[in-house]
Design a protein that fits this description.
By secondary structure, the chain is mostly helical. The protein has four helices and no strands.
Length: 92
């Protein structure tokens, strides 16, 4: 006769402290994803505006756009309105 030993059941209990830190981690990750999405959207808009006004973008301009944070991208997007050159967008 073979005796089967049951596998231990997974613990489903999470303490309040663990729940707090888990939720905090989730919230931080979620905010990071939102920030990344916002920066990507701003970069896409800026790139479209620059291409419309100045034509094909050189690599240096694309590199600067993809390395910038959201507030810088928004400032540059506003600069497109008054800049006479591509370099002027990034200098103002």
């Amino acid at each position: 006769m073979t005796t089967q030993i049951e596998e231990p059941q997974a613990m489903t209990f999470i303490s309040n402290i663990e729940r707090y830190y888990l939720q905090r981690h989730i919230d931080e990750r979620k905010q990071g994803w939102l920030d990344e999405g916002s920066a990507k959207g701003a970069a896409d808009v800026l790139q479209t505006l620059l291409q419309q006004k100045f034509g094909r973008l050189p690599d240096w301009a694309s590199d600067r756009i993809h390395q910038a944070n959201t507030s810088t991208l928004q400032r540059w997007a506003l600069n497109v309105l008054s800049a006479e050159t591509l370099q002027g967008v990034f200098e103002q």
